[in-house]
Design brief:
With about 500 residues, this protein is of the alpha/beta class. The chain contains ten helices and 23 strands. α4 (about 180-195) packs across α10 and α8 packs parallel to α9 (about 345-360). The longest helix is centred in the middle third of the chain and has 31 residues, at about 225-255.
């Protein structure tokens, strides 16, 4: 009898386990309050028992959609979405269990990624962010936009690609916006106010991270230019293991000395910065998102790659190509922020970002020379950053007419005896200076020595000269860590720093 009861108990446990695994399960992204991309073929996906049939009722259409999980329990459905509106829908999924998703909106969906300047929240967090954005109390009070939804991916690193993330969708309100990514929020707010449709923002960012952490292992391994990155990772891992071994050895010796009195042992265990290792954030915080249909990406990163700016010229475009290929949505919009002035940054990283405009199709760059902070790597004016990112999207993605979305970008130069004339893109309506004289222009001759130059606006060009340079051949503009650049176009968008030469710099030799 006892044996029979044990067999019955085991059978019930096994049946319960099978029943639990035979449930439809959805990824965190596919949940209540989500925003789906309008006018698109979107993916709905998840897991179930092998060969389980699933019926899906979409609130915006009369006919249901059916699918069957494969032999491993994976399933995916492609569904059509209507034009965006503020009407909320439900989705009902039925298999061996039933799931109802509530309060779903149809609109525009953007991924917002990068390092700390993208992660930077709207409000204050006493332990991490003690400032908040400019006028954060007022911004929080006025943040009543329930049709702007944000999904914040919880930070995680992984050596292998994951299928899911942790996080949830939240509507924008004074109670929730405090922890939202500020750049993402202000970008989404501007889009919402101009497009008048729901906006979904997927925020996946982590402070202090490098572009290689957001790039797949395959891409890094197949490109010889990135071999040094992987070699550095291997060296750092070996060094960490050595520190760990020494830590345990010293801990053992201390405890023996202190007669195993743990209270007298104060050795700190070495910390491993897992989020800086190659491909670990791509695996954990990007790969799980690629089934979700999006409109595009905004990106704010580069500070952690400044010491290897020359390598960033190829690494950043490779990362973007990697994302586009894996998402399988073509060359979707990829708009990014050029690094703001700060004592720790060099002009070469801004140049690498500027050069990406020519190598990346469907891209755009926000210049921030006028809103940086020499002593704060996290400038608090995130409103302007979000506005300028949205300006690019409104012009290039949503085709808003007659909208200038970029500040002046260097195009070419012409030499006329002792002067050099600089020609720009995005300056057709004219150039202006913020101040009495143009600043941050330098000029050099064949000796490669740069001198401060006189710069004068002439229509949509700038004439540069110096009495110390008789035969000039090159010009620098805002070519320093913290420039005080004051050249704008009529639309009040700042000119990007640039140089007309390609002479070797220290960062060119850093791999």
């Amino acid at each position: 009898m006892v044996c029979f009861k044990k067999i019955l108990l085991v059978s019930l446990v096994l049946w319960a386990q099978i029943s639990l695994t035979a449930q439809i399960k959805l990824p965190a992204l596919v949940s209540d309050n989500m925003v789906l991309q309008r006018n698109s073929s979107i993916n709905l996906w998840g897991w179930a028992s092998p060969n389980e049939k699933i019926n899906i009722q979409l609130g915006w259409q009369n006919t249901s959609v059916e699918t069957t999980a494969d032999k491993e329990g994976n399933w995916n459905v492609i569904a059509k979405t209507p034009k965006g509106s503020e009407k909320a829908y439900s989705i009902i999924l039925e298999g061996k269990n039933k799931i109802t998703l509530h309060n779903i909106l149809i609109g525009e969906v953007w991924v917002c990624s990068g390092q700390s300047n993208m992660y930077f929240p709207v409000g204050r967090e006493e332990k991490t962010w003690k400032t908040g954005v400019k006028d954060y109390e007022e911004e929080i009070k006025n943040a009543n936009f329930p049709n702007i939804r944000i999904f914040t991916v919880l930070t995680k690193a992984a050596q292998k690609s994951l299928d899911d993330v942790k996080g949830s969708w939240a509507g924008c309100s004074p109670n929730t916006v405090n922890t939202f990514s500020a750049v993402a929020y202000f970008f989404g707010r501007d889009l919402y106010q101009n497009l008048k449709i729901p906006i979904g923002l997927i925020s996946s960012s982590w402070g202090g991270t490098k572009a290689e952490a957001w790039t797949s292992q395959k891409v890094l391994e197949e490109n010889p230019d990135f071999l040094s990155i992987l070699e550095t990772d291997a060296k750092n891992e070996k060094l960490y293991q050595e520190k760990l071994e020494n830590y345990y050895l010293n801990l053992r010796n201390e405890r023996i000395t202190n007669n195993n009195d743990v209270s007298k042992t104060e050795l700190k265990k070495p910390k491993k910065e897992e989020n800086k290792t190659s491909y670990v954030l791509y695996n954990a915080m990007l790969h799980p998102l690629i089934n979700y249909t999006i409109k595009g990406v905004i990106w704010y990163q580069g500070e952690s790659n400044a010491d290897k700016a020359y390598q960033y010229r190829s690494l950043f475009p490779a990362m973007v190509k990697n994302w586009r290929e894996d998402w399988k949505q073509g060359d979707f919009p990829f708009y990014y922020v050029q690094i703001a002035p700060h004592n720790s940054q060099n002009p070469a990283i801004r140049e690498a970002q500027l050069m990406a405009l020519k190598t990346l199709t469907n891209s755009g760059m926000v210049v921030t020379t006028d809103i940086g902070d020499a002593k704060n790597i996290h400038p608090i004016d995130k409103q302007t950053v979000g506005y300028r990112l949205a300006l690019i999207a409104r012009a290039k993605t949503y085709n808003e007419p007659n909208l200038v979305y970029s500040g002046p970008i260097y195009n070419h130069m012409k030499t006329d005896r002792q002067r050099i004339q600089i020609y720009f893109d995005y300056a057709n309506s004219g150039l202006v200076k913020n101040g009495e004289v143009l600043k941050e222009f330098e000029i050099a001759g064949e000796d490669h020595v740069f001198y401060p130059a006189e710069a004068v606006i002439k229509g949509s060009t700038v004439i540069v000269s110096s009495s110390k340079v008789k035969n000039p051949i090159a010009v620098h503009f805002a070519w320093k860590a913290v420039p005080e650049a004051n050249l704008f176009n009529i639309e009040n968008l700042p000119a990007s720093p640039f140089r007309t030469d390609d002479w070797v710099e220290k960062t060119d030799m850093s791999f």
